[in-house]
């Protein structure tokens, strides 16, 4: 069974990579710029995650050099990068960032909680 989110009779919770409903300045700036470029606001956090990925690579290249080896080795040293999808740090070979629990109730999407 597949229904539109607005057709569910109760609250639906789901995980998201970023909260596009956040009032944080960086998020608002990103969503406004996205709308200006594409004509509508991003529907999911994946656009923010992609943007943050490129910004992380650029910040790493600027700090450690632009060669693939410099970026690969420097990326693991990133700590507390402020991205649209939250604060990102690397631990070993993986990134750590918040996971957003969203809720959809009565046709409105909002953030339920942030898991860090």
List the helices and strands and how they pair.
Layout: E1 12-16, H1 25-38, H2 46-64, H3 68-75, E2 81-83, E3 86-91, E4 94-96, E5 99-105, E6 108-115
Antiparallel strand pairs: 1-5, 2-3, 3-4, 5-6
Helix pairs in contact: 2-3
InterPro entries: Peripla_BP_I
Protein name: ABC transporter substrate-binding protein
What does this structure look like?
The chain has 116 residues and is of the alpha+beta class. The chain has one domain (5-115): Rossmann fold (3-Layer(aba) Sandwich), CATH 3.40.50.2300. It is built from 3 helices and 6 strands. The chain has a 3-stranded antiparallel sheet with strand order 1-5-6, with no helix packed on it. Strands 2-3-4 form a 3-stranded antiparallel sheet, with helices on one face. Strand 2 and strand 3 form a beta hairpin. Helix 2 crosses helix 3. The longest helix is centred in the middle third of the chain and has 19 residues, at 46-64. The radius of gyration is 17 Å and the shape is elongated. The model has no long low-confidence stretch (mean pLDDT 90).
Number of strands: 6
Total of domains: 1
Strand content: 25-35%
Structural class: alpha+beta
- Assign the CATH superfamily: Response regulator
Broad shape: elongated
Short description:
This protein is of the alpha+beta class and 116 residues long. It has three helices and six strands; from the N terminus they run βαααβββββ.
């Amino acid at each position: 069974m597949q229904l539109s989110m607005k057709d569910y009779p109760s609250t639906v919770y789901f995980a998201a990579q970023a909260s596009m409903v956040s009032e944080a300045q960086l998020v608002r700036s990103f969503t406004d710029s996205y709308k200006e470029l594409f004509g509508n606001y991003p529907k999911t956090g994946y656009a923010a995650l992609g943007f943050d990925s490129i910004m992380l690579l650029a910040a790493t290249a600027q700090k450690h050099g632009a060669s693939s080896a410099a970026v690969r080795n420097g990326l693991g040293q990133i700590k507390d990068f402020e991205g649209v999808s939250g604060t990102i740090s690397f631990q070993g070979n993986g990134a750590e960032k918040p996971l957003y629990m969203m809720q959809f109730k009565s046709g409105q999407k909002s953030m339920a909680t942030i898991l860090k």
